[in-house]
Design a protein that fits this description.
Elements lengths: L31 H7 L6 E6 L4 H17 L4 E6 L4 H6 L7 E6 L2 E7 L4 H15 L16 H11 L3 H14 L4 H16 L6 H7 L4 H13 L3 H14 L2 H15 L7 H14 L1
Parallel strand pairs: 1-2
Antiparallel strand pairs: 1-3, 3-4
């Protein structure tokens, strides 16, 4: 999960939506390994994946925040804004929001999907706690690595809405350390989200109405990726590559390769899409 950056500050909830959950339990792709996987060696971690667009999922997270405060140290809560942390949702195979997963010993233990009444959530939590009782290592946690002030500066710029400043900070890291994959990955995600979040939902209909509109197809693919539909995004661009030539085909292929780089190359859907691309080209 390393090599990503929390870009949740770039996305705004719709007007009238409940306020997003507090940041005390927030986890993103950058600190997932430390706050979830490593922490779960000693205590069960309940990961709640929610969306700022879903009032019901926000209410469930607020319920969990209250319950973890009541339960002391018997479990730990980690809240994940799914749309800003696509790879975490994909790693758990999430099919809908909200989804809640208990992680213990570095592995998923139990989960449920959808809003639930407090009594059922409490029953589920008690079952998780009982299941791991006496089976985790406990003891002191591994010390967290010191934060790199350069990344801290970039993340602070993001939190303040300074996209240009964040981009410049990551570019400076890469200039000093050309092999810094964490900075490269963060910069790719930043540029993608900064571009994709400006695309209106209507572009899907525009692309469907005119298959020859290359710009609309590119925007539609970005929007599908933003909405956690990578396979649909890849298929759209591969279809565009098949029916275009010259500069348009090069543009579509370049965009597809950029989107591939948002993921681990070993992801099965990336491997499948690369095979389809090869077939489309040759």
């Amino acid at each position: 999960m390393s090599g990503a950056v929390d870009l949740s500050s770039l996305k705004q909830p719709p007007a009238g939506a409940p306020s997003a959950p507090g940041g005390d339990y927030a986890v993103n792709e950058t600190d997932f390994e430390t706050k979830v996987l490593r922490r779960s060696i000693a205590v069960p971690v309940v990961v709640a994946l929610y969306s700022q667009r879903s009032p019901g999922s926000i209410e469930l997270v607020k319920l969990l925040e209250r319950l973890v405060a009541e339960d002391g140290d018997s479990w730990v809560l980690a809240t994940v804004e799914a749309e800003s942390n696509i790879r975490i949702a994909q790693a758990f195979g999430v099919q809908g929001i909200p989804t809640v997963i208990a992680v213990a010993g570095g592995q998923p233990l139990a989960d449920f999907q959808g809003a639930q009444p407090e009594s059922q959530v409490r029953q589920w939590l008690n079952a998780v706690i009982d299941a791991v009782s006496g089976k985790l290592e406990g003891g002191e946690q591994q010390p967290q690595p010191a934060e790199d002030p350069r990344f801290t500066a970039a993340e602070s710029a993001l939190e303040n809405g300074d996209l240009a400043g964040a981009e410049a900070a990551y570019e400076a890291i890469i200039a000093a350390e050309p092999g810094n994959e964490e900075a490269k990955s963060a910069l790719r995600q930043l540029r993608f989200l900064a571009r994709a979040q400006e695309i209106p939902d209507s572009v899907i209909a525009t692309a469907a109405a005119d298959p020859t509109d290359v710009a609309a197809a590119l925007d539609a693919a970005d929007l599908e990726m933003l909405n956690q539909r990578p396979e649909a995004s890849f298929d759209r661009l591969i279809a565009l590559i098949k029916r275009t030539a010259g500069d348009d085909r090069t543009t579509a292929r370049t965009r597809l390769l950029e989107l591939f780089e948002l993921f681990d190359p070993a992801e099965p859907f990336v491997i499948a899409a690369r095979r389809k691309l090869a077939a489309a080209l040759y």
